[in-house]
Amino acid sequence: EGVQVNPDVLQLNPDVSELYIDLLCQYNPSQVTEILHILEHYRLEETIQITQKHKLHEASAYLLEKKGDVQGAFTVMLK
């Protein structure tokens, strides 16, 4: 099954990608981490703030690890 993403969505500019991620956090939070693995055009800091705002710890940890903050990712997963 998994997440189905139109290939055109992968080429969105960062503002649109981040808006999409924000909406996904609100309406389909279970798919956020999987989408973050697929999408390419988003800014890490802004997207971390979005996932933290929605208290999506797994997604936040993934982004922190991607940023190189392994300790931060570990801390988030302990919440």
From TrEMBL:
Keywords: Protein transport, Transport
Name under which the protein is recorded: Uncharacterized protein
Spans of repeat CHCR: 1-79
One of the record's GO cellular component terms: CORVET complex
Pfam families reported in the protein's UniProt record: Clathrin (PF00637)
One GO term of the biological process aspect: endosomal vesicle fusion
Organism of origin: Pleurodeles waltl
Domain of life: Eukaryota
